[in-house]
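Q: Predict the bound structure with nicotinamide-adenine-dinucleotide.
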Amino acid sequence: MSRCLVTGGAGAIGSNLTAALIARGDSVTILDDLSSGHRSLVPVGARLVVGSVTDDASLEDAFVEKPERVFHLAALFANQNSVEHPDRDLNVNGLGVVKVLEHARRAAVTKVLYTSSSCVYGNKAVMRETDIDFKPDTPYAITKLLGEQYCRFWSDFHKLDTVMVRLFNTYGPGEHPGRYRNVIPNFMKLAMGGEPLPITGSGEETRDFNFVSDTVAGLVLAMDGATTPADVFNLASGRETTIKALAEAINEISGNRAGLTFQPRRGWDHVLTRRGETSKAERQLGYRPAVSLWEGLARTHAWLESVGASA
Ligand SMILES: NC(=O)c1ccc[n+]([C@@H]2O[C@H](COP(=O)([O-])OP(=O)(O)OC[C@H]3O[C@@H](n4cnc5c(N)ncnc54)[C@H](O)[C@@H]3O)[C@@H](O)[C@H]2O)c1
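A: Predicted complex:
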């Protein structure tokens, strides 16, 4: 059992990760400025430090209990937000990574996990870790890749053990709908309110949707695993789903008869297909995503109903 620091632990994925760590007996401190996270998501038993990963005093407080392991999830989320606020994106996703790595080094942390994103790949038919022809096409994608480069430097030069995971669209309980949030909670909210679901593009664009418990299992495996410093793993479902099929499934689960509407693709969105290649994580970490899209959507819908998220 170990002492962990989870930055961004009041967020959608971080709160689920924290709950999983506490359930197995780890002690967890969360550092979160609550800019997109929620106090109500912080699991019982976690110590919450409210502050920014860019602020040294908050980081010192977060490191007081001498964590052995750091999961760095705090980030400005995500593409649209970064297009509108590129300076904030660079501050949190660039400087924030540098500060966390430096505090981890000084505290002699044994391993830091960094949550990167599939968007570093840009628009590719198959996305695998051996690909180094990156095509980040938003400020968020650029700074997620920048964070990876910083992790590599702190591993190579400072000998701090790091592992990086590229997450594909993660969804599930813990993610509230909102302007900058992912498609699933936003479609669910509209469907629960009887509204048509607005598809930006043709609807034939695909994404790889991974249920949050599968993503969290991958985070824990990557931290626990005997990885080489600065190694990188995709964490995805390995399934491609069209946005149209996703929207139809959400309408069915929600009993929504309002159908779909079509709008022009967002100007920054060039990704037509996205599927994560997970054989490396399967082989080296024993990662096995287990939740079907239908089951995951049903569980997400039930959670959103329980927190009263309808429009
Ligand atoms: N959800 C996805 O589909 C997805 C996909 C790829 C990568 N990721 C990455 O996974 C991580 C977690 O994503 P999420 O979906 O849980 O997002 P989230 O927005 O729910 O969580 C991020 C958390 O970080 C906190 N935060 C933001 N700025 C901060 C700061 N300056 N200091 C301290 N805390 C701060 C927020 O309040 C929030 O609780 C992020 O690094 C994100 O880039 C997520």
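A: The chain has two domains: 3-169+210-235, 175-208+238-275+291-306.
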